[in-house]
Amino acid sequence: MKVLLCLLPSLLGAQIPGAQTYDVVLRDGRVLDPESSLDAIRSVGIRGKKIAAISVQPLRGKVEIDASGLVVAPGFIDLHSHGQTPENYRLKAMDGVTTALELEIGVSPVSEWYATRETKALINFGASAGHIPARMAVMKDTGDYLPRDTAMNRRATAEEQQAIGAAIQKGLDEGALGLGLGLAYTPTATHEEILDLF
Predict the structure, then answer these.
(1) Measured distance CA(131)–CA(149) in Å, rounded
(2) DSSP letter for each residue of 94-148
(3) Predicted structure pTM score
(4) Which has the closest alpha carbon to 47: 5, 73, 87, 8?
(5) 42: nearest Cα among 56, 32, 59
(6) How would you classify the pairing of strands 50-55 and 124-130?
(7) Which of the 8 DSSP states describes residue 48?
């Protein structure tokens, strides 16, 4: 099944049209909207960046795309996305992903991560405050994305655990979407260290 993704918010709020001309019309595609349970052949009228009409009747647009045999759907959200670069965002957008979230590993420092993407990303983005990157920074691990030595091979001292917790709290205060954990990558993190984070 071929899919044509409408990289816009949910289709639910669109109005049925009168005799109007739209910027773009996706004509006669199978429109799927999980929020409203719509699953039917329709034409979609887009004005600016918003869906303005969903209709069984023909629509007219400055640009008309024949979506016959294709699926028209809202964009997808990738909850487990490690590709957080401009190139990956471009490829994700081409696949219909409108939001990519780095939730498993997370990031640290959070404000710096958000600042490097603000107004530059093709899609929506977000991240958790990462235990792994905070642990790597505090324990001076030489790894890049994942731990390579100290954060993986030894237990954190009480002082280091406190500093890791403070880095995660700072990340949450800076807009992180939650706490990111990858316990398989930090096998020496104790139960106490993890429970203290929660």
Answers:
(1) 15
(2) HTTEEEEEEEEEEESSHHHHHHHHTTT-SSEEEEEEEHHHHHHHHTT---SSS--
(3) 0.73
(4) 8
(5) 56
(6) unpaired
(7) T
pLDDT band at 61 (very low <50, low <70, confident <90, very high): very high
**What is the Cα 5 distance to its own chain's centre?**
16
Query: Which residues lie closer than 8 Å to 29 by C-beta, 6 or more apart?
Result: 4, 41, 42, 43, 44, 67, 68, 70, 71, 72
Instruction: Kindly report the number of other CB atoms within 10 A of residue 33's CB atom.
Output: 20
pLDDT band for position 4 (50/70/90)?
Answer: low
Q: What integer pLDDT is reported at residue 154 of this predicted model?
A: 96
Say which residue the tokens 């406190």 belong to. Answer: 162
Strand, helix or coil at 16? Answer: coil
104-117 pLDDT tens trace: 999 999 999 999 99
